[in-house]
Design goal:
Shape: elongated
Structural class: mainly alpha
Number of strands: 0
Number of domains: 1
Number of helices: 5
Helix content: over 70%
Strand content: under 5%
Oligomer: single chain
Radius of gyration: 14 Å
Largest sheet: none
Amino acid sequence: MSTARIVTTLLAAALAALAALIDVVRADWVRGNMRRYGVPDRALPWLGGVKALGAAGLLAGFAIPAVGAAAALGLVLYFLGATATVLLARAYRDIGYPLPYLAAAVAALVTAVP
């Protein structure tokens, strides 16, 4: 297992877990942003759960590589959707929020696939 895979996987897992925690605690700034994007408050725990599962899957990928690759792909798709949501809401100043998470998930996916 390469150092790049370990580092990118741990970084992506940490970022996904942080994003999940922010959703679960329902920070006011997140709720405000989500409302502007047209995402209802009731969706936050579910969105946080998806990110938490992605983080867990990335870590499980150290033992079962296919699970890690699937989790990385899932997070890439999730954060592509988040980016699209921001763009569709025309909240261009907020585009910087999902992009680092997307970049970390892409890096984890690239290093997970042999």
